[in-house]
Amino acid sequence: MGAYITAIGTANPANRYSQEDLAQFMCNHLVTDPIEQKKIKVLYRATGIQHRYSVLDDYKKSLGTFSFYPNDETFDQFPSTQKRMNVYRQEALKLAISAITDCLGNDHPFSEFTHLITVSCTGMYAPGLDVDLIKALNLTTDIRRNSLNFMGCYAAMNAINLSKEICDNNSNAKVLIASVELCSLHLQKEQTEDNLLAHSLFADGAAAVVVSGQHRQNEQALEVISSSSQLFISGQNDMAWQIGDFGFEMALTSYVPEIIEGGINQLTTELLAKNNLSLSEINGYAIHPGGKKILESIENQLGITKAQNHASYEVLKNYGNMSSPTVLFVLKQVWSQMKNQTHKKILSFAFGPGLTLESLLFKTV
């Protein structure tokens, strides 16, 4: 028995923005004080992000031509949660299908999937994305479904863990994971420190993963070996996600890197000890780029270099933080650099509300 990732696909919306353009949007419409505008531009430059994607095209428009945001100078009639969820329902399915197509191609026999897991914390409705995917892809109507909602950036790790449990108990199982986040729908008008930090980081994206209970001979795959998790309740107010009247509201303090730095050694030690491994035996790292400071904190604690963590910086630079799919973008890139190599071990981390630290260990086969 075992669980094997046989394919990873990724996708982004059509609207690609430079970090400078997004900072200018904030300065034009939400931050009017010249001193604060200067701080915004410094903050956006400091993220290490160059480009981000959004399902919204308003960020390249001028006042009077917006389709999502209000067209009055005061921005008083900010989009309601209902309006944001309507856009989510229109766009999430399309983005999820794009990621699945990137993962499997257009002519894959979808009838062979036994399980479907959908992951999202930026929108919800019922019947949900899982049902829409069944209709759109012609999946079997008796497919077993799970939806992991509102878990934040580490949720895709839990989806892989759930897939492993399924495959460990049924070697004929084949699981399709679809993780899709439209973070840009949740821009807040009130410019608190938490909101400013969140606005500078988050973006839209989707990823799809196939996990199978077996893999064919000579087929490239990532075996899901083991996992470990730690909950640091002392940080529960430093990263949180609430439903408000005007979208979802994030609490994201500057103390998050410090909390992760304090817990990453324990998490890593436990996972490696369970598998009789040392850190020197790890060949690659797929770390969720929640922010540049988070990556630097982990490097300092584990004694790894920026070069070893290169894929995380590349994803952060080119896509920003897309919440749950982000670590899958990183894992795809790390795995692609190890194609045709076997027995290479990849250590992966992701973080989210709670404050939760998740880890996974993979091996190329």
Could you explain how this protein is built, in words?
This protein is an alpha+beta fold. The protein is 36% helix and 24% strand. The strands form three sheets. A nine-stranded mixed β-sheet has the order 5-4-6-7-1-8-13-12-11. A two-stranded antiparallel sheet has the order 2-3. It has a two-stranded antiparallel ribbon with strand order 9-10. The longest helix has 24 residues, at 81-104.
Top-tier CATH class of the domain at 226-364? Alpha Beta
Low-confidence stretches: none
Main sheet makeup: 9 strands, mixed
- Distance from N terminus to C terminus (CA atoms, Å) equals 14 Å
CATH architecture tag of the domain at 226-364: 3-Layer(aba) Sandwich
**CATH T-level topology of the domain at 226-364:** Peroxisomal Thiolase, Chain A, domain 1
Number of helices: 10
User: Pairing-aware structural class of the strands and helices?
Assistant: alpha+beta
The CATH homologous superfamily of the domain at 226-364: Thiolase/Chalcone synthase
